[in-house]
Write a structure and sequence with these properties.
Layout lengths: L7 H22 L6 H14 L3 E5 L2 H11 L7 E5 L4 H9 L3 E5 L21 E5 L10 H11 L2 E5 L7 E2 L2 E2 L6 E5 L13 E5 L2 H10 L4 E3 L2 E2 L10 H11 L2 H19 L4 E2 L6 E2 L5 E4 L3 H10 L29 H6 L3 E4 L7 H14 L4
Parallel strand pairs: 2-3, 2-4, 4-5, 5-8
Antiparallel strand pairs: 1-9, 6-7, 6-13, 8-9, 10-11, 12-14, 14-15
The structure holds pyridoxal-5'-phosphate.
Length: 367
């Protein structure tokens, strides 16, 4: 049996009859940038997230950069984020001219360690970007109360967490802005790059929309210099079709995770799940000893795996200038050699999961 890490081909086969006409319609209408289809998707995604506004942008990295810019953050400012994320999060901070300040993760949940945020604050700190890593919301109540005490902005990196909830509240509405990615492999993925910013604040929404479209108010009237980062209509058409299936896929991901939990209990260490969240399992991550051998064994069994992420951000060459060592981020450093992402996607079957469980158990001689 073959179990790919993510199966976008199977997903397309199941949706072809809906996707193909939606794409054809955009081409026939020849309205490729902005227009009805983009407006409709933005409206539908805002409703899904229960947010007042949704602004489509070019990708998830731009979403974070634009959110920071719209909040007036840039040169001379510091922004706090988690040491264990994809580089897009910190890259977006640097792109504004601000300085990135990394904080270690919680050793159990692997989201930002809220107990270490205040130690990282300086007089220049302007914002916190919690990452809802692997699809699990960060501890937003604690983060918001720190932000309120110190007058900081909160921008959620929800690139892995479409539909996740924290104490019944959807991610994307828990800070000043929520930033989403529609990279093809994300829980809601386009057929190319795409992203969105959600916010309940009318002023932020207006600034974000202008910033993403050359700072313009109307054609050839520009209030300031922005950038060109728009969600195009072909991607919006694909996303609007897929959005109608997202809840089904999310429930499937959650059921798959539960099956993994049960089948691997006592065999591997799992990432801790907070009891008060709806985790949407963008990734199902376990911690194993002898990871390289386990991965090689699974590959022989036709099972795809991944590592998210092999090097904590502050230890990347890109951040050598910050002068950090592993001792500065003990939790992130401890997990980096153990984490293993198992196959997870919206239409994974029980038979596929059972094949992976058997493979992991055999790899660890646990059967
Ligand atoms: C995917 C991802 C991003 C960036 O999204 P792109 O659309 O690829 O630019 C940002 N943060 C996290 C945590 C991600 O997983």
């Amino acid at each position: 049996m073959h179990v790919p890490f993510v199966d976008l081909k199977a997903q397309y086969r199941s949706l072809k009859h809906e996707i193909d006409p939606a794409i054809t319609q955009v081409i026939e209408e020849a309205s490729f940038i902005g227009g009805r289809v983009v407006d409709e998707f933005e409206r539908n995604f805002a409703r899904y997230v229960r947010s007042r506004h949704c602004i489509g942008v070019g990708n998830g990295t731009d979403a974070i950069t634009i959110a920071l810019k719209a909040l007036g953050i840039g040169q001379g400012d510091e922004v706090i984020t988690a040491a264990n994320s994809f580089i897009a999060t910190s890259e977006a901070i640097t792109a504004t001219g601000a300085r990135v300040v990394f904080v270690d993760c919680d050793p159990l949940t692997c989201t930002i360690d809220v107990g270490r945020i205040e130690q990282a604050l300086t007089t220049r700190t302007r914002a916190i970007i919690p990452v809802h890593l692997y699809g699990q919301p960060a501890d937003m109540d604690a983060i918001r109360s720190i932000a309120e005490r110190h007058g900081l902005r909160v921008i959620e990196d929800a690139a892995q967490a479409h539909g996740a909830r924290y104490r019944d509240l959807p991610v994307g509405t828990l800070g000043d802005c929520g930033c989403f990615s529609f990279y093809p492999g994300k829980n809601l993925g386009a057929y190319g790059d795409g992203g969105a910013i959600t916010t309940n604040d009318d002023v932020i929404a207006k600034t974000v929309r202008m910033y993403a479209n050359h700072g313009r108010t109307e054609k050839y009237n520009h209030e300031f210099e922005g950038c060109n980062s728009r969600l195009d209509a072909l991607q919006a058409a694909v996303l609007d079709v897929k959005l109608r299936h997202l809840e089904t896929w999310t429930e499937r991901r959650r059921a798959a995770a539960l099956r993994y939990d049960t089948g691997l209990q006592g065999v591997v260490r799992c990432i801790g799940t907070r009891p008060d969240v709806r985790h949407v399992y963008h990734l199902y991550v376990v911690r194993v000893p002898r990871r390289a051998q386990v991965m090689a064994f699974l590959k022989e069994q036709g099972i795809g795996t991944g590592i998210h992420y092999p090097i904590p951000l502050p230890l990347l060459n890109a951040y050598r200038y910050l002068g950090h060592g592993p001792q500065d981020f003990p939790a992130a450093a401890a997990m980096k050699d153990e984490i293993l992402s198992l196959p997870m996607f919206g239409n994974i079957t029980d038979a596929q999961i059972d094949h992976v469980i058997t493979g992991v158990r055999r790899a660890l001689n646990a059967t």
